[in-house]
Write a structure and sequence with these properties.
Blueprint lengths: L2 E5 L4 H17 L4 E6 L15 E4 L7 H15 L3 E4 L5 H8 L4 E5 L3 H6 L2 E3 L7 H6 L23 E8 L4 H5 L8 H13 L3 E4 L6 H10 L6 E2 L7 H9 L1 E6 L3 H9 L2 E5 L5 H4 L6 E4 L29 H10 L1
Parallel strand pairs: 1-2, 1-4, 2-3, 4-5, 5-6, 7-8, 7-10, 8-9, 10-11, 11-12
Helix pairs in contact: 1-10, 7-8, 7-12, 9-10
């Protein structure tokens, strides 16, 4: 039996995209014990999968980043792992993995030091679907190739003619100046227009979506949609709700990746981020974006850490969004 440690710091969407790598290793070593080290904000991933046996947390976004990493290192030393696999393109990662004293260490190639300290330094190819980028880390550990995230929830029968809308994004991204969706007023028009076109519209969201949902509630008559805001108590219940819809419309956020994992027909608003890296290129997932001509688009994470004030890439009309959902 192998004890395998995966390390992946990021948001919930990153953890979902990381799942194919974990799943492929579990298929190769079905009796192995899988531990995932992640940020506390992404702990909801354990509600979506049964391949993770144990979790460790390090709040690397807080003030005490290095203390948190030191605490994580102490925890790792007590577990005696056989293998560690870590994402991330920071040069410090190979040093951290070396200090775990785990025999087999896999991470991205960040230069000569990583080649020296890692068992295998994997070429980091960011110009592909993120799930595939993460999966490259385990190509030397498994013959299996899991292409898409898979989550373990009880899928519901999709109700015909339904459109589930999850309009929000995480508050953390907003606080960091990363605007990744259209305004709440645009979303309100989309809800009303889809209802007027004969669709059964269901609205969903969590605590981070409170302001957006409240704006929609003020603008759109209640009889035109079913409001599930606040009624899903955890990610598993949200996933079950998504699985019950014929079509799912959302922003570039974690629920998008849940829709992909469930195989639900998913429509996603994209502005400054690169849809080719965030969604698989198949007919189950439809990016909704405008033809705004910006020389550095997509810019977010590629060239900028925040979005610009103009946000021309997000000037998408409600009619364009509705037509995309109805026509594809």
């Amino acid at each position: 039996m192998k004890k395998v440690l995966f390390i992946n710091f990021g948001g919930l969407g990153d953890e979902i995209l990381f799942l194919p790598a974990i799943i492929s290793v579990k298929k190769e070593f079905p009796n192995s014990k899988i531990t995932l080290a992640l940020e506390p904000r992404s702990k909801g991933i354990i509600n979506l999968t049964d391949v993770i046996d144990e979790t460790m947390f390090a709040d690397i976004k807080g003030k005490n980043k290095y203390i948190e990493l030191l605490k994580l290192l102490f925890k790792i030393w007590t577990k005696k792992f056989d293998v560690v696999v870590s994402s991330g393109g920071n040069k410090f990662i190979s040093i951290f993995l070396f200090l775990t004293f785990i025999k087999e260490r896999y991470g991205y190639n960040t230069g000569k030091l990583s080649e020296l300290l890692l068992t295998k330094a994997i070429t980091l190819n960011k110009n592909q679907y993120a799930a595939k980028m993460y999966h490259d880390l385990v190509e030397n550990l498994t013959k299996h190739n899991t292409e898409l995230p898979h989550i373990n929830v009880e899928k519901k029968c999709a109700e015909p003619n339904t459109v589930l809308i999850h309009p929000g994004v995480s508050l953390m991204s907003i606080k960091k100046g990363m605007v990744k969706t259209v305004s709440a007023k645009i979303w309100a028009e989309v809800v009303e227009n889809l209802a007027d076109r004969g669709k059964k519209v269901i609205l969903a969201g969590g605590p981070d979506d409170k302001e957006t949902i409240e704006t929609i509630e003020k603008i759109v008559p209640k009889e035109k949609y079913i409001n599930y805001y606040g009624r899903t108590r955890n990610l598993k219940e949200l996933a079950e709700l998504i699985s019950s819809a014929e079509k799912f419309l959302c922003s570039d956020s974690a629920p998008l990746h849940i829709g992909v994992a469930l195989g639900v027909k998913t429509y996603v608003i994209f502005g400054s981020t690169d849809d080719k890296k965030l969604i698989p290129q198949n007919d189950k997932v439809v990016p909704i974006k405008n033809d705004y001509n910006c020389p550095i688009r997509p810019c977010l994470w590629e060239r900028r850490q925040t979005t610009c004030e103009e946000l021309g890439c997000l000037k998408i009309s409600p009619d364009d969004i509705v037509e995309a959902v109805l026509s594809k």
